[in-house]
Amino acid sequence: MRISIPHIPPDILAASASNPPLLSTLTVAAQRVADFLDSGNVAVLTGAGVSVDSGIRAYRGKDGRYMNPNYKPIFYSDLVEDSPRGFSFRQRYWCRSYLGYPPIAKARPNPTHYALSAFMHSGHISRLVTQNVDGLHHKARPSYWTDKYAASKILELHGTLHTVHCRRGHLTRRDLFQNKLSIANPRWKAFMDEVEVSGQRLRTNPDGDVELENASWDDFVIPDCEDCSKEGTPDPVLKPSVIFFGESVPAVVKERSFEHVEACDRLLIIGTTTATYSAFRLLKHAIELRKPVMLLNVGPTRADSLIGKGVEKVEWHSGEVLHTAARAMLGPRISEDRELQRLLTSGIVTPIDGTFDDHAPRAGS
Ligand SMILES: [Zn+2]
């Protein structure tokens, strides 16, 4: 398999830098989105941009480029390698992920998540596919949706951070695994507590790990899978249930994502550059099926060259535009429907704290 870090073609980035935003007023932008949603049966595809208002940093800035030019993802093959080298990668991953998980676990849905839920409740949006692994769409779902029902409507294309599994597929809830990591790593637990007490926040990536420069995680202990140990065949290779770079989306998930596009009449893509191929191919699939596609994203996307060829783009903040569209479309229904009212008045914006604290434990300290 060819492994590459997804990127947006340089010519699109250059063109975007010189183009003005596509729409000039919120009212015009919201009307375009409302017109798109009005006939119903819309599928939505979301990306990291949707979670930024929940305080979760996106990998790319508004210009579509990586915010950290030195960004080096961990590849799947490194993470699961059964060797001292693989062990070292897992120590690095789990140490950073141990520190990065609490802010993701505590993150709350923002107005965009709730507006999308309101449109699912009103029947305009029928399915949602997300590239995000933070679980925030589930947290913002209509109150009467069971877990099972939510799972049939919301597909996590790249998995979730909220479970962990071994190579034999034993699943553990992430909060339970996090407790085990705390017990096994008192020095790191103390560091995490210290950061929390000081009110500082580590620089967390959307995949739930933090950036630690020059820190040493050689002492980080990763517990074996408990179920495998009980069966007498210990497995030390645990990973969160997210798709890593170089790892394929499972066939069943890929199939379901295509089904979601096939079952809808239109596709609305929000807060993503669609640089990742698993997202871009859904857009391509919609175009092949001649389904109208709308991009709601600030900044360039990989699909910008398709604007006017079955794709339209609204360059505006998603929370604002979706709420304005909801008020225009749902009007009197909002005061009559308590669930709709609840969803459209929920969600807070959590600013991203730029402070990068790096007094992590060092080797020998
Ligand atoms: Zn196991």
In a few lines, what is going on in this structure?
The chain is an alpha/beta fold and 365 residues long. It is built from 14 helices and 9 strands.
Explain the overall architecture:
- With 365 residues, this protein is of the alpha/beta class.
- The chain has 2 domains: 6-56 and 107-158 and 249-351, TPP-binding domain (Rossmann fold, 3-Layer(aba) Sandwich); 69-105 and 163-242, no CATH class.
- Helices cover 41% and strands 11% of the residues.
- It has 14 helices and 9 strands.
- Strands 3-2-1-7-8-9 form a 6-stranded parallel beta sheet, sandwiched between helices.
- Helix 2 packs across helix 13 and helix 5 packs across helix 13 (318-336).
- It is globular, with a radius of gyration of 21 Å.
- 41% of the residues are buried.
- Zinc ion is lined by residues 166, 168, 170, 225, 227-228, 235.
- Keywords: Mitochondrion, NAD, Transferase.
- This is DHS-like NAD/FAD-binding domain-containing protein.
- Pfam families: SIR2.
- It is found in: Mitochondrion.
- Residues 19-346 form the Deacetylase sirtuin-type domain.
